[in-house]
Amino acid sequence: MTDRILVLNPRSGDGKRSVRARTIAENRGYDVRESQTKGDTIDIARQAATERPDTIAACGGDGTLNEVIRGVDDAGRLDDVTLGVVPGGTGNDFADNVGIRGVEHAFDVLDEGRERRLDLGSAQWTAEASAAAVERVAPRPFLNSCVCGLTAEASARTSREAKRRLGVVAYVLSTLQRTRTFEGLQLDVRVGPAGEREPAWSGEALMLLVGNGRRFPGEQMRQANMEDGLLNVVVVENRPALDYLRQGAADRLLRRGASHLTRLTAKHLEVDAGTSRQFSLDGELVEGRHLRADARAGAMRFTVGASYEPSPSDPNGAT
Question: Domain DAGKc spans what residues (predicted)?
Answer without folding.
Answer: 1-126
